[in-house]
Amino acid sequence: MEKRTLLTAFRDYLDSMNSADVADFLDGFDWDLQLRQLDPETIPVVRQLQSITAGPGDSLLEMLSQQAHGLHWGRTYGSADFGEHFLRNYGWMELFGSRGHFASGDMAGGFLLLGPDIDYPDHHHIAEEIYVPLTDGSLWSRDRSAFAIRMAGEVIHHPSGINHAMKTTDRPLVALYLWRGGPLAEKPKFEGTHHE
User: Fold this and answer.
1) Is the residue at 27 inside a domain?
2) Range of the domain at 69
3) Which residue of 14, 36, 48, 164 shows the fewest CB atoms closer than 10 Å?
C-alpha cells in the first residue's frame, strides 16, 4: 500500500506543476499500473536523504525519505566506471518502468539521488527524458553548454540523443525523472569529458 501511495504522490506532484512540457510527456499515459514484487535494496547514497530537510509542501520528498529503506534502489555503474566516491554517492529508484516497483513498458519514472560533490559526466541515450529537481542548487548542462544552477521544481528536458551532465556542490540532489521513447533500461553512452 505504501508504494501505491508514493506512486499517487508522484503523479499528483507532476499534475500540480501545470507544465505544458510535463503534460505533453505524460499525455495518454495510463497510471493504472500493476505492482511488481521487488525486495528492498538499499545503497550507500540513500543515507543522504536524512540530511535533506523537506520544506512546506515537499510531501513527495518527505514520503520518499520515509519509505526509502523499503524500496529497491539501483546503480547503473560500478566502481571501475567512475570510482568508489561516485559509486557511494549515486543511485536511482525506479518507481515504475521495465524494472520498477510498478510495471510499465511505455514509460519509466522514479528518483535520481546524488550526494555532495559529484560530477555525473556528459552522457546521452535514446530515451527522451524529463528531470525535475526536488532540491535546490544542483548544476546542469545540456548539449555541452555551460553549467547552470537549477532549483527545485524546474523542468529539465533532454530530447533523444542529446548530451547532458549534472554536478552537485555541497548539497545532495534528489530529482524526479521520466523516460520514454527508447529502451527503458538502456545504459547511457559516454563520449569524452565535459568542457565548461
Assistant:
1) yes
2) 2-180
3) 36
In this structure, what C-alpha cell is assigned to residue 8? 499517487
In a domain, 62, yes or no: yes
Instruction: Tally the domains of the chain.
Output: 1
How buried is 80 (Cβ within 10 angstroms: 0-12 exposed, 13-18 middle, 19+ buried)? Answer: exposed
Would the pTM of this model clear 0.85, i.e. be above it?
yes
6 falls within a domain: yes
The reported pLDDT for the residue numbered 193 is: 44
- Residue 196, pLDDT score: 39
CA distance 158 to 140: 11
Buried b (16+ CB within 10 A) or exposed e, 93-107: bbbbbbebbbebeeb
Mean pLDDT, all residues of the chain: 91
How confident is the model over 144-170, as pLDDT tens digits?
A: 899 999 999 999 999 998 999 999 999
